[in-house]
Amino acid sequence: MYKLVRIILALSLALILGIALSYTSSLAQPSGPPYEIDVATNLVYYNGPGFNPQKHILDIFSPKDLPNAPVLFFIHGGGWTEGDKSIYPFLGRTFAQQGFVTVVISYRLTPEVQFPGHIQDVARAFAWVYKNIARYGGNPNQIFVTGHSAGGHLAALLALDKRYLLAEGLSADLIKGDLPISGIYNVNTHADAYPDVKNVFTGDPDKQRDASPVAHVSEKQPPFLISYAQNDLLTLDAQAMELAKLLQQKGTEAQLVMVPNVDHIGIIVTVGTPNDLTTDLIVRFVRAHLN
């Protein structure tokens, strides 16, 4: 399934890259004209044991002449087995034009690592961003975390399971808001629908449960915007609803949005195109939750 996802993603990106840089949706205008952008690529965020020079790197897209800007931290998808930050400059540029310092990361994939290797890398990248983003015009106290598919799973888990940021000497309270897109939140449910997931999380249901964001919902969480596609992969709509309900029951703001007329790939590759709902949802949510 995920090889097909990769092919569709590549084809879709080829179609939209030409217009992604000129996003000026009437739904979500920045306070002035779209910002010009500075780009820093292939910054190493971790070089300790297990260092992979192709995966422990990130790119930063910064709006020019906008100090102390909010930060959008993006985690790519690909079933925890494929994908790379190099696919997403369109996303980095889109949100930088809107006034957000946008960070796009890579992380190690299966089979190089199994869970929890992926989320440990994400936590390392977040820690690097928190400590260094001011040099790129970002406000470390205004970091919003987002991701698509497997990246949506990792975005939610980073906020909900406090262990991974604590291992980096940080508090999960530093996440200003969490915006997972078409993510996996109940790994047990997902493994039943897609058996290959067991290569990532093993076939042990207890380990799958420990990897599930829904298993780590507690009273103190950042606000969430949970979006999924009208024609998403099997069970992802139900998983989004499950996570939103659990968060709401604990008193956390959790907005749940179904994006119409798109599938699992379309919900992310249309970012930056005119009047795109996913883009608008993210821009509005971030702006609404700034101090």
Number of helices: 11
Major sheet size, sense and barrel closure: 8 strands, mixed
Strand numbers in spatial order across the main sheet:
1-2-4-3-5-6-7-8
Classified by CATH, the class is Alpha Beta
Strand content: 15-25%
Describe this structure in words.
It contains 11 helices and 8 strands. The chain has 291 residues and is α/β, with parallel strands linked by helices. An 8-stranded mixed β-sheet has the order 1-2-4-3-5-6-7-8, sandwiched between helices. The longest helix is centred in the N-terminal third of the chain and has 19 residues. It is globular. It starts with a helix and ends with a helix. About 5% of the residues have low confidence.
Can I get a quick summary?
With 291 residues, this protein is an alpha/beta fold. It has one domain (2-288): 3-Layer(aba) Sandwich (Rossmann fold), CATH 3.40.50.1820.
Question: What order do the helices and strands come in, and which of them pair?
Answer:
Blueprint: H1 2-20, E1 37-44, E2 57-63, E3 69-75, H2 89-97, E4 101-105, H3 117-132, E5 138-148, H4 150-160, H5 163-166, E6 175-181, H6 187-193, H7 198-201, H8 205-210, E7 224-231, H9 236-249, E8 254-263, H10 266-269, H11 277-288
Parallel strand pairs: 3-4, 3-5, 5-6, 6-7, 7-8
Antiparallel strand pairs: 1-2, 2-4
Helix pairs in contact: 3-4
